[in-house]
Structures are given as C-alpha cells and as structure tokens.
Amino acid sequence: MEDLSQRSTRAELMDTESVSFAEFHDCLHTLRIINTFTLAYRPTLRWFERMTVGVGSEQSISVIDIGCGGGDMLRRIWRWARERHFDLKLIGIDLNPWSKKSAEQVTPKDAPIRFETANVFSLDSSRRADFIVSSLFAHHLTDGELIRFIQWMDRHATRGWFINDLHRHPLPRCVIKYAVRLLFPNRMIQHDAPASVARAFTASEWRYLLGKAGISPERTEIEWFFPFRYGVSCRKL
Predict the structure, then answer these.
(1) I need a surface site. Which of 65, 149, 160, 179 has the fewest CB within 10 A?
(2) Predicted structure pTM score
(3) pLDDT tens string for the chain (237 positions)?
(4) How far is CA 233 from CA 21, 31, 67, 89, 112, in A?
C-alpha cells in the first residue's frame, strides 16, 4: 500500500507519455464520465454562483480555465450561465495540444468558448480575466510550481479564483484504483486515476501552500466536498 502521509511524486502518463490523439481523446471522454459520477463539477459551479450574485445580464463575465483538458468544466459553466442570460467569454488553456483538438470536437459551435494551447507561465503578463478556475490541474504540479501558479492566479484574476482538486486519502485511492480497473479499459485512466489521488492534497497542505504564496487567510476559503474533494477559493473584491 502506497504511503499517503505525503504527496506522491509518481508521474502520470498524461504528463509524461506521447500518445495518439485517439487514446488521449478516449481518456478525456472517460474522465468526463468519472467526473459526472463523482460530482466533480459541483464545487466550481457553487463557487461561481456565489461569486456572480447581483451580476446582471448586461454585464460581461470572463473566465479562464487553466489545465482545461477536454473543456467540460467550461461547458458546464456555459450551460449554467446560459439559463441566467449571462454574457460570457470563456477561455480554456492547456499545455497539451491534443486537449484543444479534443475540446473543440465536443464543444457546440455556438458556445462562447475558445481553446488555446499554452504554458500558463508563458502567457502575456497583461492577460486578465474576472475569474480564473482550474479543476484537477493542481495535483499535476510540484509544490513549487503550485505556489507559483497560485501567485499567477492572484495577479491575473480581477474578481476571484478557484481551485477544484482531490483530497489525498486512502479511501478514495482504494475505491478509484479498483473501480477504474473494473469499468474502464483505458490504460491512462487505470494508471493516472489512483496516481492523481496520491499526488493530491490535505487541508493543512493547502494552508501551507497558500501561506508560502503570500495569500492572506482572510481572503481565502478551503472547503471540503463529498466525495473527497477540496475547493480552494479567493475573492479579490
């Protein structure tokens, strides 16, 4: 049994192997299924709903999703906001060029979503958005990279930012390890899903990382969501 007292440094195949577009696209499709059944979108949508209280349909809202993968979080935000007649500008950014291709294939043409292939730390320093979000991206980073990413979000988000990621714990790691073996043949999912949990965080680690990034505790909230997920948020206004 892997020691979960501290973050694993075991790399995920998604970050280290060159794979075909077909295999990568299938991996993202499977992740959408897993995310749906594990209520992965709920933390971000709840935070977004709180942050847009009082926003009228005449106001434009911009959102950047870093590490957007197949773009499913942005599509969820779009569908939620469409019912409220918000004027949205949604941008998904991912380092892997297959992400952009995959996301564009499954995103409706009328959605106000644009996808880019880029390293977040190489983006123009003047780049800004009302809200910056990430989902299941933070655990791919080292502690040093994550501290830098938190600082980047705090500089580039004008109204607030939100990180949606996993809670490192033996129970979800055990469940996901055997569930994906039973249900999903994709080798990337079978390897990366349990590895993701082992690379994830505890609440005390989030407090430490936020402190190292220079983010005041008064501006942030660390909230646990069922099943075994943390939402880390910061309000700028």
Answers:
(1) 179
(2) 0.95
(3) 678 999 999 999 999 888 899 999 999 999 999 999 999 999 999 999 999 998 877 789 999 999 999 999 999 999 999 888 889 999 999 999 999 999 999 999 999 999 999 999 999 999 999 999 999 999 999 999 999 999 999 999 999 999 999 999 999 999 999 999 999 999 999 999 999 999 999 999 999 999 999 999 999 999 999 999 999 999 986
(4) 33, 23, 17, 21, 24
